[in-house]
Design a protein that fits this description.
The protein has 333 residues and is mainly α. The protein is built from 17 helices and two strands. 62% of the residues lie in helices and 1% in strands.
């Protein structure tokens, strides 16, 4: 039995905004560009089955949503000490797929899968240990799980381990070792690692300070659709910081990040529409995105004055557009 990647620890775990905290504050008036300080939120954990093998009956049933069938087949395989079968059973109990959700049971199955050598079982158990879900929180044991998985060359395990070395949590703080693990994951296509590596190059932490390398890795993460990276890379393109200015490409990434809910991108897109910077000016679109960003807590007195100066009809149209967008996001997150 085989398995696909289940768990990512971190997911832009290092920062949320390469460009001077702009993705957090949403403030980006047309002023000289400068790098600011980054913030470090709690890591966002994800657990999603990817690349499930078609040649395995249990995983084929899982992929088709036949969770009880998958569970039965996996349990049969588990009696033969199939490592991946244990991990699949853990996944089913962890998310309550066809059964009552039970993270303690899931942790036991993951632990057995990890003991038998399944990399995804190691990743899953490491994540549960790091969060204290189903088991007692233990960053040291979590680090052991990630390190065992990282030795096999797994990029997600290397990324997780890199974050631990970076924060000194579960591993001694070591920015150089952190950068090595994060770069390994970035080179193998992990978008969050690519974005975090960009931040390391900006800060010169564990790697030399290098704006061009930061832009290159931010671009790669943006190309994969990572919202915060799309926003930051758009800013780089708009202002030509270490790059050739490219308004058309910048607005594409900026619009994508705004649609995905990045408040800073929404506010910046409002500026773009208000000024007609690389796009046809639209007072209604500018007001729409400003209202959406403002609802997320972004302050911008200049844009508020712009909206207040609009005609009643324009404000009404913008308010309706903003309300429609919010409704659509609630229905189709």
């Amino acid at each position: 039995m085989k398995t696909g990647h289940f768990v990512i620890l971190g997911c832009v775990g290092l920062v949320f905004g390469v460009v001077g905290g702009l993705a957090i504050s949403g403030m980006l008036p047309p002023l000289p560009f400068s790098w600011g300080t980054a913030q470090t939120p709690s890591p966002e954990l994800q657990s999603t089955p990817k690349d499930l093998p078609e040649d395995d009956a249990a995983y084929a049933a899982f992929d088709q949503g036949k969770y009880l069938t998958a569970l039965k087949l996996a349990e049969e395989a588990a009696t033969r000490n199939d490592p991946q079968a244990h991990t699949l059973i853990g996944r089913i109990y962890a998310d309550g797929l066809g059964v009552s959700r039970d993270e303690s049971v899931a942790a036991r199955w993951y632990a057995r899968g990890a003991e038998l050598g399944d990399v995804q079982g190691m990743l899953a158990l490491g994540t549960m240990l790091a969060e204290g879900r189903g088991v007692g929180k233990d960053m040291g044991l979590a680090a052991e799980m990630f390190e065992k998985a990282a030795v096999t060359g797994d990029p997600l395990a290397n990324y997780n381990l890199g974050l631990m070395f970076l924060r000194g949590n579960g591993k001694p703080e070591n920015p150089h070792r952190a950068a090595q693990h994060i770069q390994y994951a970035a080179e193998r296509g992990i978008a969050a690692a690519q974005y975090d590596l960009a931040v390391l190059y900006i800060d010169g932490r564990g790697v030399p300070h290098d704006g061009l390398e930061a832009a290159r890795w931010s671009a790669r993460a943006a190309e994969q659709g990572l919202p915060a990276a799309e926003y930051d890379y758009a800013v780089m393109l708009l202002q030509g910081r270490g790059l050739k200015a490219d308004e058309e490409k910048a607005i594409k990434y900026l619009s994508s990040a705004a649609e995905k809910g990045v408040a800073g991108a929404q506010n910046r897109l409002s500026h773009v529409y208000a000024e007609g910077a690389g796009i046809d000016a639209s007072a209604v679109q500018a007001a729409k995105w400003r209202l959406i960003a403002k609802a997320s807590g972004v302050e911008d007195e200049r844009l508020d004055q712009f909206v207040a100066a609009l005609s009643e009809d324009e404000r009404t149209e913008a308010e309706k557009a903003a309300e429609d967008w919010q409704t659509r996001k609630q229905i189709m997150p």
